[in-house]
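Appendix B. One record, verbatim.
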Amino acid sequence: MSEKNSSIFGFNSDDVRSGAVEMPTESGEEAAEKIRRKPVGRWVYVLAVAVVSLIAAVMLISSFVDRVNDGLVMELQTGDIMPSNKADGLYTGSYSASDMGASVSVDVAGGYIISITLDSYAGIDTERVLTVFDAIIAAQSLETGDDSIGTQPTDKILLLAVQDALNGGGVQ
């Protein structure tokens, strides 16, 4: 094979330099027109917009559902408990609503609640647990006298779990 035809194109760079082979040239406008004519990637943009829209819709619906569920939890009513009527022991109870739930153990001795333990939970703001339990123990009631207790869905679930333990939960 000769030097001239050693390229897969049938010519080599020496041919191009010497002018023996003429390379196609385009003006900037012709090249831009070719790019405009190609519908390269339009479906990619449509798909991207659709995916982003779907994600935004899911997030919006999820936020709405969470607010509705929190509102329903806040409407739950607690009764009062009477630890003085309870025999000494460890009472267990639980309560769940929406996507939240808690299981608690309430230790009663001498007619007083001496401790409350969170045994298991789902969707609970764990930073509120000690505040709520301490208020119940201090008041010896679900009516704690603290206006901040019961103002959050976590509080309501915890209060209702303690109520369940002392009003019919199991004794260990």
